[in-house]
Design a protein that fits this description.
- The chain is mainly α and about 190 residues long.
- It has 7 helices and no strands.
- The protein starts with a helix and ends with a helix.
């Protein structure tokens, strides 16, 4: 596999991931568990279809430089994919259990989903162009997102203490925000390796 071909495959994979993320976000905020589940299944099938060649390359004993780079990119990609998979799991649990999030928590999640979506868009362009301004934007996106999650966590603890937020909702909210944070970290790792 040539490096350009590898970059193109990852760019297409992230484009498909972004489409899934946008659909899942719509399903989550419209409280449509069927939509979230369908997109979750679509994402898992997408990974199987798009990364079917990964096991072959990883299993090869003698790897060229491009194959070695591919393996390191797959590892960084897994961080992003596992974060998104966990977000979708928690969304399904939240909707199916009729767990309510406060209006503030909903607004915070919308903002975080917007930030992570912007970071993915920048990465898609960066994979193809290697524009250093996009790399800086991806890193700044992670920093901004981490700062917001940390800020939201403090405010969230106060909501939990005062009884505005229930423990079950708290667990789901924190797990979703931590998973989005993990995705942001994986996107930076991927960008630095590509």
């Amino acid at each position: 596999m040539e490096e350009r071909e590898m970059d193109q495959k990852f760019s297409e994979l992230f484009k498909d991931m972004l489409t899934v993320m946008e659909s899942v976000r719509r399903g989550f905020f419209s409280v449509n568990v069927k939509m979230v589940k369908e997109e979750h299944e679509k994402f898992r099938n997408l990974l199987k279809a798009r990364l079917d060649y990964a096991e072959k390359i990883i299993g090869e004993v003698d790897k060229g430089e491009t194959e070695k780079k591919f393996v390191s990119l797959v590892i960084a990609f897994q961080t992003v994919a596992l974060g998104l998979d966990n977000v979708m799991d928690r969304m399904e649990i939240k909707i199916e259990s009729n767990t309510l999030f406060s209006e503030k928590a909903q607004k915070e999640l919308k903002g975080l989903f917007g930030l992570i979506g912007g970071q993915v868009k920048d990465l898609i362009d960066y994979v193809v162009t290697k524009n250093p301004h996009l790399l800086a934007a991806i890193k700044k996106g992670k920093e901004d997102l981490n700062n917001l999650v940390d800020e939201y966590s403090v405010v969230h603890q106060n909501r939990l203490i005062t009884g505005v937020c229930m423990p079950k909702a708290s667990y789901l909210y924190i797990d979703i925000t931590d998973s989005v944070k993990r995705m942001a970290r994986g996107l930076v790792e991927f960008a630095e390796k590509v």
